[in-house]
Specification:
Layout: H1 3-9, H2 43-64, H3 66-84, E1 111-118, E2 123-128, E3 134-139, E4 151-153, E5 164-170, H4 178-194, H5 196-204, H6 225-237, H7 244-251, H8 255-268, H9 276-280
Antiparallel strand pairs: 1-2, 1-4, 2-3, 3-5
Helix pairs in contact: 4-8
């Protein structure tokens, strides 16, 4: 046999195919892929429920006739009008602001003391006797110029309003003229002196300790613990003060001036506590 024929008949071993059978001892390969979930049949009854009222409504509309449609058309304009009106919240005619009228701060006041009368602007700056509220009032035309400490009526009885025409607004001490700021302590002091018996009974004869270290008399400007204990001792000896004069002589103070200064401090700073204005006013008749 020639060399060429021998090469052709030579059998070359072939590789084993990968798809050959595996030995019996090998572990079976786990299943791959996602199992197919059969479709649920819940969607059909839901659609059937939704379609059911539509069929009923259509059948009702067909049986209702034209009269009901005309009635519905007549109601629509009224409904639109109601929504556009002021009755609807946020409508064009609806006023978001509160409809309640503001109460005037001097609604319950009857009398006030003049601090300053500006004859050019025809404005009276005064302080009320009820709560020591500083206010601006428009003066009536033709009245004579008022002096500081003058007492004027500001109540609701129009027949008694000789000087005041109307309430303008509140007044601030830092916006007043220098003359008004200088006269302010005197105006309040005269108010205390005119109602001295009230302040004797409401404060000086009943004031006690605010704490273990402070007495109520120490709220007065210039009164320390030593002076406060002296006032308490003199009050105990006399079984209570009968007048401001007796208090001033026994304790060597000016009680009306000290109380007026305390009131002015509370007017300037509303954060001061305790507030004698709220505790002692209004004056009881």
């Amino acid at each position: 046999m020639s060399g060429m024929n021998r090469d052709r008949q030579t059998k070359v071993p072939s590789r084993k195919s990968k798809t050959g059978s595996e030995p019996k001892t090998s572990i079976s390969r786990p299943a791959e892929g996602r199992s197919v979930i059969p479709p649920t049949s819940k969607a059909k009854p839901v659609q059937a429920k939704k379609d059911a009222p539509r069929k009923d409504s259509r059948s009702n509309r067909q049986h209702s006739g034209g009269n009901n449609n005309q009635g519905a058309n007549q109601k629509r304009p009224n409904q639109r009008g109601d929504n556009r009106g002021g009755g609807r919240q946020g409508g064009r005619n609806h006023d978001s602001r509160s409809t309640t009228q503001r109460i005037s701060p001097i609604a319950e006041e009857n009398w006030a003391r003049v601090i300053e009368h500006n004859t050019v602007d025809n404005i009276i700056t005064a302080i009320t006797e009820g709560k020591l509220f500083m206010c601006r009032l428009s003066a009536k035309k033709g009245i004579e110029a008022l002096n500081p400490t003058d007492r004027i009526y500001i109540g609701l009885d129009q027949s008694k309003k000789v000087h005041v025409d109307a309430f303008v607004g509140g007044a601030k001490l830092d916006l007043m003229s220098n003359y008004a700021r200088q006269d302010m302590p005197l105006v309040v002091q005269l108010f205390v002196e005119d109602n001295s018996q009230h302040f004797i009974e409401a404060f000086f004869n009943v004031a006690g300790n605010l704490s273990l270290k402070q007495h109520a008399f120490e709220l007065l400007p210039g009164v320390g613990n030593k002076k406060a204990m002296q006032m308490v001792k003199e009050r105990r000896i006399s079984s209570g003060f009968n007048s401001l004069e007796e208090l001033n002589q026994s304790c060597n103070i000016d009680a009306a001036e000290l109380l007026a200064k305390r009131f002015i401090l509370e007017i300037e700073d509303r954060s001061i506590e305790p507030r004698l204005i709220d505790l002692l006013l209004p004056v009881k008749a």
